[in-house]
Write a structure and sequence with these properties.
336 residues, alpha+beta, Nuclear Transport Factor 2, Chain: A, five-stranded mixed beta sheet
Length: 336
């Protein structure tokens, strides 16, 4: 991860680059230009009307493939709740997003940030609490011709609810809207076969292949540095629940014996690899104290990996925990 100081240094450099002659800007790589566009979008969205922001940064046919607070939004749809305001400004008027990581490859940019602010207005039916919030959100952006044409978001909805001490507001029909199981994504062994045929003289390609192998049928055991660290678990709040209840050994992998994650894509830049995948399997064993449900689960997760000296040095994961709790009818896990 980059520190806030490093980020400010980078954005200061981006601002300076914006003042350079067109010829100098043209010499920057497409990846660096795309990063500057996404950083500019994020900065503009803090204060400017979203219609103006979209007109400047988004293409006319822009598509949002997934919203960051997707599960909260789905459960609030059609319930007559007060509007959150554009960019959640009604709910979190002092919202300030702090960027922690940004990578780019080809026409795509990955950004990780923290949404910070004070909950002072209605939020998907949750009344104002006056509490400070600080939760992760990630975005994958596709750009073309200097515009954002597509974006996909994932936010830590479970963490947000825990910080607010809130539940998903009850719907009029008494239902909970559960994310669907789509079986989308690519089988990891098929991905491996393709990656193995690429130019492995490039460190990015080697690192990408190493990460992909962790999802294959026979994951290697010798690809990690001796001081490898997992900085965050993908389903961290659920794991914390297991720690508090003495069931931490009942992990996601143990609870899904047929687990077979499907890969959606990668971003590789320098010593970093982002992998977007879907945790997929059947909960036929206990999960942090939740009895077997025999239900299929499928949730998006992002892994951010760091390499050093050709070895996998660090891993940081972030998954759709609220989605899994909804699929397993396990919202009580938010109470710890």
């Amino acid at each position: 991860m980059i520190s806030r100081r490093m980020f400010l240094q980078r954005t200061a450099g981006a601002a300076l680059a914006a003042q350079l002659p067109r010829a100098a800007i043209a010499q920057a790589s497409i990846e660096e230009r795309n990063k500057q566009i996404v950083i500019g979008y994020k900065a503009a969205a803090k204060t400017r009307p979203m219609a103006a922001v979209q007109a400047e940064f988004f293409s006319a046919d822009y598509r949002r493939l997934r919203g960051g607070l997707q599960n909260l939004a789905n459960n609030a749809t059609g319930q007559g709740f007060a509007d959150n305001g554009e960019y959640l400004r009604g709910a979190i008027p002092d919202r300030d997003d702090v960027i922690e990581e940004i990578v780019a490859e080809g026409d795509r940019v990955g950004m990780l940030w923290r949404v910070t602010g004070t909950h002072r207005g209605p939020l998907f039916g949750i009344p104002p609490t006056g509490k400070r919030v600080n939760f992760y959100e990630a975005g994958i952006f596709k750009l073309s011709g200097g515009k954002i044409v597509e974006a996909w978001f994932l936010a830590d909805e479970a963490g947000l609810l825990k910080q607010l001490g809130a539940k998903i507001p009850a719907r009029k029909d008494g239902r909970l809207i559960v994310p669907p199981v789509t079986n989308a994504g690519e089988d990891p062994d098929a991905v491996l076969k393709r990656l193995e045929a690429e130019d492995l003289s490039r460190p990015e390609n080697r690192n990408r292949l190493t990460v992909a192998r962790s999802k294959g049928s026979t994951p290697p055991t010798d690809d990690r540095a001796s001081d490898f660290k997992q900085l965050r678990f993908g389903f961290q709040h659920m794991r914390d629940y297991g720690i508090a209840n003495g069931t931490v050994k009942q992990s996601i992998t143990e609870a899904l014996p047929d687990r077979r994650d499907r890969i959606d894509g990668f971003l590789a830049e320098g010593n970093k690899v982002w992998m977007l995948f879907k945790v997929s399997g059947t909960q036929s064993a206990p999960l942090y104290g939740v009895a077997p449900t025999n239900r299929r689960v499928e949730l998006p997760e992002i892994g951010i990996m760091t390499f050093a000296g050709g070895k996998w040095k660090q891993a940081w994961y972030f998954g759709d925990e609220l989605g899994m709790m909804l699929q397993l009818d396990a919202l009580h896990m938010l109470q710890v």
